[in-house]
Amino acid sequence: MSWRIVYVSEVDRLTLNLNSLKVAKGDLEVKVPLGDIFAIVIEDLTVSLTARLITELSQYNILVIFCNQKHLPECVMHPINGHYSQFGQMKSQLNWNEDGKGVLWRNIIKRKILNQLECMKYMQVENFRLEKMKTYSNSVSLFDKENIEGQAARYYFNSFFDEFNRDNEDLIENAVLNYGYAILNAAIARTIVAKGLIPAIGIHHVGERNHFNLASDLIEPLRPLVDLYLLKNPPEYFMTKEYRLELVNLLHARVFIDGKMQTVIRSIEIMIQSVIDYFDTDDESKIKLPSLNKYKFYEL
After folding, report:
1. According to CATH, where is 3.100.10.20 located in the chain?
2. Contact status, residue 297 vs residue 261, Cβ threshold 8 Å
3. Of 11, 26, 70, 115, which cross-links 292 as Cys (Cβ 3.0–4.6 Å)?
4. pLDDT tens per residue, range 10-52
5. What are the residue ranges of CATH 1.20.120.920 in the chain?
6. How far, in Å, are 15, 129, 239 from residue 158 at the CA level?
7. Torsion 287-294-221-88 (CA) sign
8. What is the largest CA-CA distance in the chain?
9. Helix ranges (DSSP H) in the chain
10. Is 86-296 a CATH 3.40.50.1010 domain?
11. Residues ≥6 apart with Cβ < 8 Å to 95
């Protein structure tokens, strides 16, 4: 299973060398086997890539994230074909029933709120607030028609910040969250494609201009991991290159899923496969979602 994340900054060229990615800056060259690479994050707007390399990255199903002038993820590259039974997987997905989607969304939102609760515990938030979040988690219905998710989110963020607004682009906290969420969302979208599913067809999200509605659904239980990193490691004034790299390495953090501690990369694969198994069997016990009752951040 691929696991390396290549972070590209201040280099000249990315080319293919046999079955390896060759990164060059001046006379310095570094080679990384393509079979080891899960994702490449490119922050250097001046780096050149060969078409031969791009084609091979697609063949290896390697996620490529391109960042903009503000160093925020701007676009991603996914292969057109990611699974040996692409048509069969897509056909099955198109037949996922609405009742099943409602049950899955309830599980996703409940796990998200429980992970937010774990985050609050780690940050030693007052007990009365913890009890309120427990109440929220127990109140989620099919399709979350009462929008418990939104109510819990406001209460959750207000437990850490005064008058916090996720739409305020001037807040450094939002810049961190947006960067971390974008990395996770791209990784989930990559694995969705690798499993042969249609990323634009979601469970709850139905944005007509969102090519990754399903990833927008499945990221929810993992968002609190980014929140927790921000709370434990707040940047002083802006996100340095080193800080951004630490956010990228959240893909190597470990969370609890299916009875074991797994990397986020592996937990994403387990989660998506469990969704496929759930719709194939109509067995709710097949659903496996990442939990923050245990976690470990990656350390260089």
Report:
1. 4-77
2. no
3. 115
4. 999 999 999 999 999 999 999 999 999 999 999 989 999 999 9
5. 86-296
6. 47, 10, 23
7. negative
8. 60
9. 51-59, 86-94, 98-122, 127-137, 148-157, 172-194, 213-218, 223-232, 241-248, 264-281
10. no
11. none
